[in-house]
């Protein structure tokens, strides 16, 4: 397949490099020092599953430089989703199947609003990876999984082709007919982990060991489940309790990308996580006081570390 990976960070870099190693024609869209490093030496993925290096000519600086494409993997930060969709519409990749590996429940709605509905596959990924240095991505552990599914029957054939490509590359991949539910299942956990690690400024081990912060973690997830149910998503009422039990199995030092971004002074995906839960809750008439408080606490940091105010 001819595959474009928009965003060559931890997620896009890992999955894209594995697909390239399996013989697919993969082109990354990157920028800054990461782009320049890949142009010099290729993208290197360091992983317990084996290191991979892509070709130096496998990267471009913008979506408009892409040629005809079969599959586009979107792996940019959530605030770039609208821009990516608009650029795709006027590029040579405009007819490609599009699969977002981003976080959140808003991403596919943005893509489907701007692209042909049958182009967009629903999907989620499970992996721990990050840019270690320009041109180098570090894959933590061995988990690299993708779950995908069509929103429309007309996308089913494309979904099967994408599934086969991932599996051929040695990536754990499966299909699910209720992909919206799967996306929300990950979202519940993601919102809980992101909200608590960022506001408490501690990893999950500290949060789950303290009675009050543990309750905060549960309440944030329970509110997200209630919003999902009000949206028509089939989540069990006990799902937040299930996810709290899952949190007890995680390494104590585990944190979230939003916590890491907060510590580094980077922009936050808060408006699409706890902030996104609040927006949906307001629209549906569902209370979400814990997520609202998280969004309020972190509001000064949404665009990065705030400047001192005199």
UniProtKB/TrEMBL annotation:
In terms of superkingdom, the source organism counts as Bacteria
Q: Which residues form a coiled coil?
A: none
Q: Which InterPro entries match?
A: 6-PGluconate_DH-like_C_sf, 6PGD_dom2, ApbA, KPA_reductase, KPR-Related, KPR_N, NAD(P)-bd_dom_sf
For this protein, the parts annotated as crossing the membrane are none
Q: Which Pfam families match?
A: ApbA, ApbA_C
Q: Where is the Ketopantoate reductase N-terminal domain?
A: 3-152
User: Which keywords describe this protein according to UniProt?
Assistant: NADP, Oxidoreductase, Pantothenate biosynthesis
Query: Its pathway?
Result: Cofactor biosynthesis; (R)-pantothenate biosynthesis; (R)-pantoate from 3-methyl-2-oxobutanoate: step 2/2
Could you tell me what reaction this enzyme catalyses? (R)-pantoate + NADP(+) = 2-dehydropantoate + NADPH + H(+)
User: Do the record's keywords include Oxidoreductase?
Assistant: yes
Question: Which residues belong to any copy of the Ketopantoate reductase C-terminal domain?
Answer: 178-299
EC numbers for this chain = 1.1.1.169
Q: What does this protein do?
A: Catalyzes the NADPH-dependent reduction of ketopantoate into pantoic acid.
Task: Give the family, as the similarity comment puts it.
Answer: Belongs to the ketopantoate reductase family.
Q: Which NCBIfam families match?
A: apbA_panE
Would you tell me the protein name for this molecule? 2-dehydropantoate 2-reductase
The organism named in the record is Streptomyces salinarius
